[in-house]
Amino acid sequence: MSIVDADIQPLSFIFGDDGLVPNNAMPLLVYKRAVALDAINPEATIEKLFGANGWGAMWRNGVYDYLHYHATVHEVLGVARGNAVVRFGGDTGTEVAIAAGDVAILPAGTGHQCMSASKNFSVVGAYPPGPQVEITRPTPENHAKALKTIPQVEIPQTDPVRGADGPLVRLWQRATQAS
């Protein structure tokens, strides 16, 4: 498989609700240098990994340069090429440098925005089974709606990098039990 280390553990970030971006009590997970990418078609390497772990509705692009979140679904971003700085958590969140081979897993409601990127920056995005993704901009009205939909989003059965036994399932279940 394309995972660099079968025991790799993600970095974990928790962001509070800032009044416009709801974020989530479950942590953003970032795997650094997690995927051994094919030199010719790195996007396909990531798509195979995510698909093998039950995540679908995939796309290839970058990360939008405006602040947004998804209130109806969790999202995974696998960096296939290049590098970028993405601010997670909204305007008062944390800027994280991501590069080819890195994977970020965003629980529903997590704000994200590309702050800068290399010209060749390419991401594969995917979602666990469930509702279709909706792009939500931070407004008071959207925030109020999101506070109702985010708790209804089910915890995925699998971690898109490490599968059914991956840390996502354990960390996200623990976070929902604590909140």
Topology:
Elements: E1 11-15, E2 24-31, H1 42-52, E3 56-61, E4 75-81, E5 83-88, E6 94-99, E7 103-106, E8 112-117, E9 122-127, H2 140-149, H3 167-178
Antiparallel strand pairs: 1-2, 2-7, 3-9, 4-7, 4-9, 5-6, 5-8
Structural notes for this entry:
With 179 residues, the protein is of the alpha+beta class. The chain contains three helices and nine strands; from the N terminus they run ββαβββββββαα. β1 and β2 (24-31) form a beta hairpin.
Summarize the structure.
The protein is α+β, with helices and mostly antiparallel strands and 179 residues long. The protein has helices at residues 42-52, 140-149, 167-178, and strands at residues 11-15, 24-31, 56-61, 75-81, 83-88, 94-99, 103-106, 112-117, 122-127. The chain has three helices and nine strands.
Elements, N to C (H/E) = EEHEEEEEEEHH
Major sheet size, sense and barrel closure: 6 strands, antiparallel
Spans of at least 5 consecutive residues with low confidence = none
Counted by DSSP, the helix tally is: 3
Strand content: 25-35%
Which outline best applies? globular
Strand order of the largest sheet: 1-2-7-4-9-3
Task: Compute the CA-based radius of gyration.
Answer: 15 Å
Q: Helical percent range? A: 10-25%
Mean pLDDT: 94
N→C terminal distance: 35 Å
Find the structural class using helix and strand composition: alpha+beta
> What is the number of strand segments?
9
Features:
30% strand, 9 strands, 179 residues, six-stranded antiparallel sheet, 3 helices
